[in-house]
Structure formats: C-alpha cells, structure tokens
Amino acid sequence: MFHGTTQVSHKSALKVSSSSSASRPAKQVSFTLQDRVRYIRPGRGTWENGEPRARRPSEWELNNQQRLVDDTLAEIEKIERSELLERQTRRKPLPAESPVREGYFTQSNWSELQHNRTAKKKGANIMALSSVPIEWNAADHDFYYPTVLIDKPKAPSNLSPGHGRGWNKPDVLFNKDLMAKAKAKPPAKKGKAPTKLLKFPLRESLSVAGTPKPNHLTNHFEICATTQDIWEYEILDLDLEGRSKKRIQALFKKAMDEWPILKDNLQYIVADNRKTIVSWKKLHESFRPEEIVTSGTSPDMAGTIWQSPSISFGKIIVTTRFSLVRKLEIDPLIGKSQSDTKFIDQDTTATERCLNLLILKSLGNNVVQVSRKKFYIRAGRHGLCDKENRVSRSLEIMRGYYFCVKAGMGALLLNFNLATSAFFRPILVSEFLADNSTFQGDLARRNIVKKLLVYIDQDRKNTDLNVQKARVKQINGFSSKNIEELVFYKKKEGIDGEYIKNGDEYEYETKPTYVHEYLSDVFGQRVTPRRVAVNVGSKNNPVWYAQEHLRIIPYQIYTRSVPDHLTDSMVNQAACNPEESQHLIECEGLSQLGFTTTANNKASFPRGIPLELYPTMLRLESRRLNFPTVKYNMQTFTQSGWSLRDSEKFHHSPVKELKYFLITTRVGNFEAKAYVREFESQVRKRLSITAVTLLNTVETAAYGMNDQASTIESKLGDAKSKGAELVLLIIPSKDRAIYRSYKELADRKFGLQTICLTIKRDNLPKTPDQPSTNAMTKYMTNIAMKVNIKKGGVNSIVDGFIVKDTLILGADVVHPGSAALESCPSIASVVGSIDHSVTRYLGSMRLQQNDKDDHEIITSFQDMVAERIRDWMTYNKDKNIPKMPTKIIYFRDGVSEGQYEKVLSKEVAKIAIAWDDQLKKAKIFKKPGMKINILAVVGVKRHHTRFYPMKKEDKDTRGNNNCLPGTLVDTGVTSPYYRDLYLQSHSCIKGTARSTHYFVLRDGDVGIKFNELPEFIHKLCYTYCRSTTGVSYATPTYYADRLCERGRLYLYKTLNGAQAEELDIDKEKEIDRQRKNRNLTFRQNPDTNYNKSRDGQKSGAEVNQEQEDLATLDAFVKKRAMEYAEAEFFEHAMNLDGQPRTNGNPWTDEVGKQMFWM
Asked: Domain spans of the chain?
C-alpha cells in the first residue's frame, strides 16, 4: 500500500489508450437527433467535435452540455413515445393468466423514462441518469439488470380460490404418551427443584371457541423428500487470517470451479457460497483413507475431516480441509409433524436450513437471491415515487418471495409468501450523493452509501484489472478534503516492474502525487472538482477514487426505513389484496421454483432436487370469534370499527377544566383558529369539561434545526412557568426534527403533557365562518382521546371485561439500525396495567447492551417489573392497606422461536422474583404456599403466515376482502405439540391481513383456560385507548412497542452515529495501546511491530493474546458506546438533590404518572 495519509490504487489506475474502445466501434454518421439521444444517455455514445464516438461521456462533459439535453427533450419524447407504441403494437398480447410477460413494455417502464423530464418541467435541477454497463443487460451476467420490466401479474376478475389441499389431522395428535409426559414430575436433583419434562405447556385439544369456519386457505404447501440420503458438508479454514466476506466467497467459488469432487458433481449439490455444501450424493466416497485428518465417530462418518486440495489465489496458496458435518435426519422432522413423542425435544433447525438450501437450486438467473430464504424478480422492479409522482433516483423497490420449510401439524410444509423490499439503484456514486430529493443532507447520504459494494465503471489499460472481481470494491469512507486537494505517495517500482520492498514493507517515492491528476491520467477523463473522494481501501490505508468512477452494484437491499415522502409509494406497491397475493404466490412465485400449474397432485422439483411438492395451498379448519362489546358513556359497538355520535362522551374523564398553552410554527392565522376552535369544542364535548382555557399563544418561525430546538425549548419553558396542564403544537406538515425536539424536551426536561397537530387541507373549512368539516371533527375526536388519556381518563371499556387482582404486562425491545453508533445499545420497555378494566397502563424504559447471542432478552427486566408492581399497588390500595396482584399475565412482543426458552428462564422467572421482593418491601405476610400465578404469552406479528377466505360470506368487505375479524386458526400451520394459535382481531383495510401468532410459554393458574385464551386476547385488542377500531395484536405489547419508539427520540444522536468520529478515535487509541503491549511482551519494544520476514511465525502465545485483545476491544467499545448513549438518554435526568443521574427512566416523575407516550 502507499505511504502517507492518502493514496489511490496504483496498478488499478492506468491511462486509457485509444485502443480501449476498439471493441465498440462507433458509426460515423452526421450528428442527428438520434446522436443527441445517444449523447444524453451515457453509454450509448458521446459527442466530440460534432461527431458521435463510442465512449461514455464524463459527468463533467454532461454538466457542461445540459443545454443540449433541454433543447432535445421534446423531440426525444415524441420519438420514444411513437417507438414504444409501435413496439407494443407489433407484439402479440400475452394471456392474462401468464405470470411473466417477458419482453413486454409496461407503464412502469414509461414512468421511469419520464422521471427526468417531469422533474425538469417542475424546475428541479437534475440531469439524465447514466446507464448501467451494457454487459449487465446480458442474462448470464452476475449483475444482470433487465431493461424491460415485468409488471405485477393481475389476478383475473373471475379468479377462483380453488379447493386447496385438505388438512389431515395426525393420528397421534394428543397421544397418551405426550399427556403422561406433560403431567409427570421428575425427581429433583439434590438441592434443586424438579424441572418439567416438557419445555412449554402441551396442547391438549383444539379450540372450540367461536363458530366453526372451515373455508380458509393458507400460504403453505405440503412438501416431502424423495430420499433419506442427503449430506451436509463444509469447506473449512476459508475464514482464517481475518479474511473478508468477499475474499471468502471468492475462495469458495474457486474451490467449486476447480476441485474435481465438486465441479464433477454440480448436478447433485447446492452451496451457500460461504462454507456449506448440501448434496444428495456421497461426495466423501471420493476421498482416500490416508486423506482423513479427523475420523468421525458415528456410523455414517459424520464429523470426519479430510485434507482437501489447496486453493491458489494470486500469489497466495490457501490450505483447506473438507468436513462431513452430518447426514440429514429427515425422519425427526417428519416425526415432529406427526406429534411423535420421541422427537419433541430434537433440534431440527439444521435439517430445515439444508432443505431451504436445496430449494434455492431450482432458481434461475431471472431472480436474485439476497438471503437463504428470500429471492427477488430481477425484472420485477418499480420506481418509488413521492406525492407529486417524481421517481426517486436512488431507490427502487423489487417484488420477491420468502420461503421456509417447517414441521406443520400433520405434514412437512413449505411456507411461501410475498416479500417486497427497497433496493439501491445502480447509479454512479456521484449521482447518489447529489440526490437531495431522496435523502436530505450530504452527511446523511454519505452514511447511507457507506459499506455498499461498488463497481469501477471505466475500463483500465491493464486488462487484468478489467475483469469483474477486480472492479468490485466497497465504500469505506470519504475524504475530508475535496479531491483536488488530496495527494499520495506512489510505491517505488524496480527495473522488473515489481514494487520494491524493504522486508515486509513497501518503499515509497518522496514526491507526492495529486490524486485528481493521477486519476484523470488513468481514466482519460477530467475528474470533477470540488467533490470529496471515495475511499475503497481502509481507514489507515485509503484507496481513493472519484465519485463518478464508481457505480453502485445492483440488488443491494436498503435496510433502513424508507424516507417519509416515499412511504406511500412503497406501501401501495407492496400491498396486495388476498386475491392478488394468492395469485402472485401460486402463479409467479411457484413458477420460479419450477411449478407452472396449480393442482392437488405431487410434482417434483426441477434439476433433480430430491424434493416433491403439492403446488396448491393448504386448506384449513378455522373458527370465528364474536366481536367484543365496546362501551363509551352511552353508546356501545359490536363491530371492528365505529364512529361516535356528535354528542357522545368518553367513558370517564377525571378533569373538569383544562389549561393549555399553544405553540404554532409557520401556520397561518386561519388554519390555527380553525384547529383551535374544533379542538376546544371536541375536548369540552367528549370529556365533559366545563372550562377550556388557552393560557397563551406563541408563534415560532425558526427554520434551522438548532433554532427549532432552542425555540421549542424556550416556549416549553414559558408553558411550564404559566402552569399549563397541556401544550399544543401546530405545524404545517410532518416534521420529524420539530416533533423530536418537542416531545423529548417536554418528557424529559419540563414534565409536560403534549400533543402535536399537523395541518391537513381536507380538515379545513373553505371560509372562517363555515362549520368544521367531518374530517376535522373525526381528527379532533381522536385528539380529544389523547387529551383524556394524558389526563388519566378512560375513553372506552370492553363491556364485562374485568380482571381483578391481576397485573397485565407487555414488553418489547427495539434495536439500533445500520446507521447507529458501533455497539449502540438497544431500548427495552415494559408496560403494566393499573386498573381492573385494563385500560390504563404506565411504563418503564431502560438501555441495554446489544448482545449478539441474547439481544432480544431484556436484561433489566426484574427492575422494570418491580416498578410496574409498585404502580399497580399504588392504584389498587384497599383503604390504604397495601395489596399485591395475585395473578400476572405477561405478553412479550417480537421474539423468535429460538428465544422462547431464554424468555422463559431469563424474563418470566424474574417476574416471580420481583413479586417476592415487592411482597417483602410492602411488609405483607407471605402465607404458606402463597405464590404469584403467571401466564406468559409471546405475540409475534413479523411472520410470513397468511390466510385467505374461500367463500364470499367469509370475506370482510370493510377489510379489503380479508378474513373476518375474529378469525382463529390453531390447526395445520401451528405447533404439533405446544399451545399456539393465529388470531386476526382487526379489519385490514389495505393489503393482505397479517394475523398475530400467539405462543404460550407458561400457563399458570390465572383463571384462563387455553380454550378461553383466544377470547381473552380478542377482547384485549379492543381496549386500545386511542382508536375507534380493534387493533391487530394484544394491546399491552402494542403499548410497549409505542413506548420503545418514544425512546428512539431520546437516543437520536447515538442511533444516527453522531459520535462515530469520537468513538473511532477512542477505538484507535485502544488498539494502539494493545499493540504496544504485545510488542513489549513479545519483542521487548513497544514500537517494534511484528514483521514476518524478521520474526517468523507468530507464537501461539501471541496469537492467543491477539484473540484476548479482540475480546477486550469489543468490551471497551461497548462500554464507551453505552457511555455516549447514557449521556444522551439521561441528558435532562436529575436526582432529588438536583444531581445528574444515569439510571431509572429518562422522563420526569410528573409525566410518568400518565400514558404520556400515547
């Protein structure tokens, strides 16, 4: 590498000679409109001295010829539109049922072409985007990026759902052996209590709640293996010496291409391109006995390791080993589906993972695989548009599918579902960094594009460097200076053209070279000045390129939340009604796996894969629960959604007057008065308040982020000093920055209850003297609900739903995204009920280390549960006599099946400990046998199971023809052993409804039998405090989720990596300290670094010390990240003596006495 603070890749950047374009000769014709079309579409020719030439223009040239683009837009549009129509006219229309319309231009193509013209007409300062390399249009290319897109196949209007494949209840379901095992009490070990033989409560019967409804399909397909001889292998040692993921994949591919044992058996194997190979042929029979390094102990040789051929990678020889991991055990997976007792505790995840890998072999190059369970249609792309229909230059969405093999109840199943995601478009890095319409702020765009893979877009003189693997790089940062200011020092070359080394170190020239001059010489084009350079090397050894030299490689998923102005477009494209969803899965999705017909007949997977599938959805038995009765002051409702009469009051309001403070930001007088008038009207009416007093109105016009925060802080201080009970903020449109400052300051510094109103044109009357619109009345009714909640009121109750002596808990954890500070902690929240009608909850919140193994487990759970018990006791005293809850029902949000046991042992067990502690602190006598009864249930929304009603009478016409609210499924797709169910409590008005999956972890004696649990949860979903509908999952977990989202406002800087530079400096100092200590220990001088030529192979002791130092460094970074996070999280937190604190909840005691986050 080059010496100095900056450098470029020396060998990869050589001057382009005139022969570099010889393979693409240009037509010598006069400059016509068609030439101008080629000119403004880089990659199709360029303009030089009045004649076209086969070289893509530089961005600098395009910028200087923008006038040419403007002058020809109208002519281009006319020609392209006529050509497009002519092409479509010549093509024969494809059948409507055809899932793929290859080669057919769609409206989405045309809207993509129109993007730049539309934006230009609206005055946007943009230019036409560059084209991807022509070779990417080839179907056999790794980055195949089709230019002709495929619209989402439309479901025929006369689509019949078919009969599906009927579910067969397994004969051994609820067998006597399982029942005996569930009730057995094993002998206790000495000094320990007896443990249960079963992990979780056993399913003893199917539900009898509600009304039978046997007519539902699910997106599951029965699947089976045709052979028991399936083997899992691994190539070992590829990940040694700190090799990158990219290098590991390259080595793996080389082994697949060169090793006879693999390349001669490609038709029998499938690989994950990292280390795992699954084969339905015994590959290990090709090894000789003397090649065995380690012998396996099992009869099938599992665990055996052989010495495999070395892999040559440039000048490096990599030695590897080949391991037989296991022979796949299919029988246990099948046995589980049949509820066989002997397989209940057997882990079958490895078998499921390998079967998923086998399915991937059926995919062709018309799809791209982004994970082991997801693939996307390459031509199934669509632009993301804002409300003015302007297409994002940086992001696009792709239609794809998710699949997973699992043991169902009675059969082995393939779960297959739609998956729509946002991806980065393959544009130049310069184009991405200039796109301020998708992402606001230069720094934000740089952070977003960091770590993406990019492609060196221009050819280089050294043809070895023009192969694909030499063009692919990763963005690791950006220069702090503009590119014209950067210099580097070249490596010295010997007479033989090789770089000169002094030991293990290269020698460098003493004269610096300007990066921009060097790159201009290398690529034969002027580098655009006044831009930062892109680093594709490391921080200590940077390798610089100009932004316009690098193109984002396609099919890299965008993992963050889509920007607000593009959310509607994302939702509209992703949402499919049940008929469309079913049609896409069965016609387009399954066709990618090789199944072109939908029938209840077994069919084989293609390419010899030893699996068979019934390509028709599974038909299940289901039940329908009745609507709960929701009661306000006078009105009652028994439906999924409702509207209040104009005169209707809320169920209970504890206040008779309200003093509020008004802040407006860039809102007109007419809008503010209209909103205030209706706000006061609805609050008086719904809460039965006799006096609503506006203490003061202040208007702020600050625009900068810092000005906004300081102005909001000042006005909140005024509100506090005037004794406001509520602060109302009116803003002209959604503004995250203002909202964040407003809420976090009110919660954590001033202890004020707040509401934020957004101006919506549909809400406003046409003139000031007109009455409020219906939209405004509904909007302010919802706002009045929030006011009542924040004042300790109850908006509605579920009639007859009383849970005495019972505390209901909900808990959730949210994790940092990819933009967060390294080792940024997670946010955990617990909420708990305080009344018998379970309508009022209070909450607790903590930061916790983001542990890789147990990142979903709440570490401060006992402390937060203790707070919830204390608050329950405060609100449930019996004539000032302390009273404890005797039953606790715990709902846990968002944990995967693999975490169930840990939630049980590390969270549910802590509930009993916290209860015992509070019992002692309250000085309540504990009678013999007295204990807390706990029911613990996990509720998960993020799953891929869907249900489709088959008959018209089973469809929810209010809910987009989804299943009716109250649909309950506990057969077929549920656990073959344990108590779980799917329940849809709400009307889904967009897309396909997603039922919540509930799994019982612990079934204590809380007075609710399993058959009664669905009804209990269903009622809970209708107690949500600020909605006139039932909600989609249990209200306590909904509240916990909302509280976690509030916590994100308190950790905004850390979650967006604001302290990254400081942490990097701290980290580098620690790395340097560790290195000097190792040098002192193993080379007797802290400044003498390891040199292989001088020191030889590192000793085992030094290698072990390096591993210990890595673990120490990880702990150091986590500790420092937590310190940064705590400083922000507890920024305004004070002890009673006025000193800063870093424990407990981040908000003030006053605000924490109500449901402030709602």
From this structure: 18-145+426-552, 231-327, 653-790, 804-943+1000-1007+1030-1158
Q: Do domains 18-145+426-552 and 653-790 have the same CATH topology?
A: no
Residue 1059: other Cβ atoms inside 10 A: 21
366 pLDDT band (50/70/90 cuts)? very high
User: What's the Cα-to-Cα distance from 1071 to each of 1081, 1101, 1109, 1112, rounded to whole Å?
Assistant: 15, 18, 8, 10
Beta strands across the sheet bearing 947-949: 165-166, 618-620, 216-218, 947-949
Q: Give phi and psi for 477, each to the nearest 5.
A: 160, -175
Query: If you count DSSP H runs as helices and E runs as strands, how many of each does the chain have, helices first?
Result: 29, 48
The per-residue pLDDT for 707 is: 65
Mean of the pLDDT values across residues 112-119? 43
Q: Residue 775 and residue 761: Cα distance in Å, rounded?
A: 10
Please give the angle made by the CA atoms of 608, 611 and 617, to the nearest 5 degrees: 130
Mean pLDDT calculated for residue range 182-211 = 71
Pairing relation of β-strands 276-279 and 165-166? Answer: unpaired
Give the tokens for residue 80: 């392209």
Write out the CATH class of domain 18-145+426-552.
Answer: mainly beta
The answer to whether 26 and 54 have CB atoms below 8 angstroms apart is yes
Residue 797 has pLDDT above 90, yes or no: yes
List the one residue out of 996, 1015, 1024 whose CA is nearest residue 642. 1024
Which uninterrupted H or E stretch holds 949? strand 947-949
* Residue 424 zone, left/alpha/beta (φ > 0; ψ -120 to 50; rest): beta
Give the residues across from 829 on adjacent strands: 812, 845
pLDDT single digits (tens) 893-946? 989 999 999 999 999 999 999 999 999 999 988 888 889 999 999 999 999 999
Q: Take residue 1019 and report the two structure tokens written for it.
A: 């009622």
pLDDT at 159 > cutoff 80: no
CA separation (Å) from 255 to 35, 277, 303, 324, 469? 47, 12, 21, 16, 16
The conformation of residue 461, written as its DSSP 8-state character, comes to S
Separation between Cα atoms, residue 207 and residue 624, nearest integer Å? 11
As its CATH architecture, domain 653-790 has: 3-Layer(aba) Sandwich (3.40)
Which tops the pLDDT comparison, 115 or 201? 201
What are the start-end ranges of the H helices in 440-512?
A: 442-449, 468-471
The pLDDT of residue 525: 82
Positive/negative CA dihedral, 369, 370, 375, 380:
negative
Spell out the SS3 assignment of 117-141.
HHHHHCCCCCCCCCCCCHHHHCCCC
Which DSSP letter does residue 761 get? G
Can you identify the CATH homologous superfamily of domain 804-943+1000-1007+1030-1158?
Ribonuclease H-like superfamily/Ribonuclease H (3.30.420.10)
**Cα(350)–Cα(197) distance, rounded to whole angstroms?**
23
Whole-angstrom distance, CA of residue 315 vs CA of residue 309: 16
Count of other CB atoms within 10 angstroms of residue 719? 25
What are the structure tokens assigned to 798, written together? 């579920």
30-69, pLDDT tens digit by residue? 334 344 333 333 333 333 334 443 444 454 444 445 444 4
Task: Give me the pLDDT at residue 887, please.
Answer: 97
Residue 1114 predicted with pLDDT over 80: yes
Q: What is the pTM of this model?
A: 0.87
Q: Which residues pair with 947 in a beta bridge?
A: 218
pLDDT tens-digit profile of 682-701?
999 999 998 999 998 888 76
3-class SS of residue 927: coil
Q: Which residues pair with 484 in a beta bridge?
A: none
Residue 508 to residue 843: CA distance in whole angstroms: 62
Q: Residue 693 and residue 689: Cα distance in Å, rounded?
A: 11
Q: How far is the C-alpha of 184 from the C-alpha of 380, rounded, in Å?
A: 55
* Beta-carbon count within 10 A of 604 CB: 14
Q: Is the pLDDT of residue 357 over 90?
A: yes
Decide if pLDDT at 556 tops 90: yes
Amino acid at 80: E
